[in-house]
Design brief:
Blueprint lengths: L4 H9 L14 H11 L11 E6 L2 H7 L8 H6 L2 E7 L7 H4 L3 H8 L2 H25 L3 E5 L4 H9 L5 E9 L14 H4 L4
Antiparallel strand pairs: 1-2, 2-4, 3-4
Helix pairs in contact: 2-7
């Protein structure tokens, strides 16, 4: 089974990162439907280390302001929803519920470096799934770095022990008028061995 051109356009070919947001809200049901898609994406050992904090109130986004680089303030404050994409360094504690190989837990519990590396890598992967799932549901997504992770963690993640990776603005963007930026050609970015 493969996607038709319309679906490929929605996900890749015509999808664009928004420059400005409309004021159309993103309902909680859409946020929940979004996660229901994201959680189905594959991760190493079915570890599912990503953790998402959805900031939908203006108050919550204001609490993020001091962590943002100047170039991201307006993008965040005007987005209907901002997602803190993070990961749980202790993701392996859920292995018994996720049906993972029982021996995997001991590998990660005994090696903090391996656990952090695996959580970061797979959490990043799940953040990318979130972008694609958002597009599939008709939302626009604006991924961002350019923030102080320590402030974000102290403000939003302290009680959880989660680590911040990047931010994603979600909503309905105004049509993008600027041309798409260039991309590398296959021979510049790929090798077939």
């Amino acid at each position: 089974m493969s996607l038709d051109e319309n679906a490929l356009d929605c996900l890749f070919q015509k999808a664009r990162t928004p420059e400005k947001w409309t004021d159309r809200p993103v309902p909680e049901e859409t946020v929940r439907a979004l996660y229901d898609l994201v959680k189905l994406g594959p991760t190493s050992g079915n570890g599912s280390p990503a953790r998402f904090v959805f900031l939908s109130s203006q108050d919550a986004k204001e609490r993020l302001r001091d962590a943002l680089s100047a170039g991201n303030v307006e993008k965040v404050m005007t987005a209907p929803v901002v997602v803190i994409v993070g990961h749980d360094p202790l993701f392996f504690e859920y292995f018994s519920r996720l049906g993972a190989d029982p021996d995997l837990r001991s590998w990660f519990a005994a090696d903090v470096g391996l656990a952090e590396e695996t959580a970061f890598r797979n959490g990043t992967l799940e953040g990318a799934y979130l972008i694609m799932a958002a597009r599939a549901l008709g939302l626009d997504a604006l991924p961002m770095s350019g923030f102080d992770a320590a402030i974000v963690e102290d403000t939003f993640l302290t009680g959880e022990g989660w680590r911040a990776n990047f931010l994603i603005g979600l909503g309905y963007g105004e049509p993008v008028e600027t041309p798409r930026a260039a991309r590398l050609a296959f021979d510049e970015a790929c090798r077939i061995l």
